[in-house]
């Protein structure tokens, strides 16, 4: 996968982007498992309901466990399926890495801040450090590949 192309070996920045993509996808998979095992929806759904009481236009939905877990498993599966492309670093995937990385940083920070605010371990906090390492790494590698001119 990361050995090279017909034109020669992969540039280091492209190879590093590919591995950063894999790291984020696997970190998100671990995070989803953490949230599922620690009953994330028992915190999320009541919070959404409470916010909606004050702000009826609030766009976040309440979720069922099966729908939530299925959607996240599909999302992580798509990220993993894109791995071969990540090792080619097409421009569109580099640009997709920016919002993905930023959202995952905010996700990780949200779990840590929620834990501090609530004074107890919130669901998903144990795997948040994985996101807080993998997401900035993806952002850094995306920037490096973009500065180097990308590959496509």
Shape: elongated
**Series of secondary-structure elements, N-terminal to C-terminal:** HHHHHH
Total of DSSP H or I helical runs spanning 4+ residues: 6
Strand content: under 5%
Number of strands: 0
Q: Short summary of the structure?
A:
With 152 residues, this protein is mostly helical. It is built from six helices and no strands. It has a domain at 12-39 and 75-147.
Task: Provide structural commentary.
The chain is mostly helical. It has a domain at 12-39 and 75-147. 72% of the residues lie in helices and 0% in strands. It contains six helices and no strands. Helix 1 runs antiparallel to helix 3 (65-81), helix 1 (12-37) runs antiparallel to helix 6 (128-147) and helix 5 (91-118) runs antiparallel to helix 6 (128-147). The protein is elongated.
Outline the secondary-structure elements.
Blueprint: H1 12-37, H2 41-54, H3 65-81, H4 83-86, H5 91-118, H6 128-147
Helix pairs in contact: 1-3, 1-6, 5-6
Features:
mainly alpha; 6 helices; 72% helix
């Amino acid at each position: 996968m990361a050995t090279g192309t017909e034109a020669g070996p992969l540039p280091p920045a492209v190879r590093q982007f590919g591995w950063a993509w894999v790291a984020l996808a696997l970190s998100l998979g671990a995070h989803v498992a953490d949230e599922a095992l620690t009953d994330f929806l028992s915190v999320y759904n009541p919070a959404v309901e409470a916010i909606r009481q004050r702000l009826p236009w609030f766009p976040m939905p309440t979720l069922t466990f099966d729908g939530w877990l299925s959607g996240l498993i599909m999302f992580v599966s798509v990220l993993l399926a894109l791995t071969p492309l990540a090792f080619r670093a097409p421009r569109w995937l580099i640009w997709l890495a920016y919002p993905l990385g930023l959202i995952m940083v905010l996700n990780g920070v949200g779990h840590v801040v929620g834990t501090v605010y609530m004074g107890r371990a919130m669901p998903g906090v144990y795997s948040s450090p994985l996101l807080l390492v993998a997401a900035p790494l993806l952002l850094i590698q995306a920037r490096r590949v973009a500065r180097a001119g990308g590959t496509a």
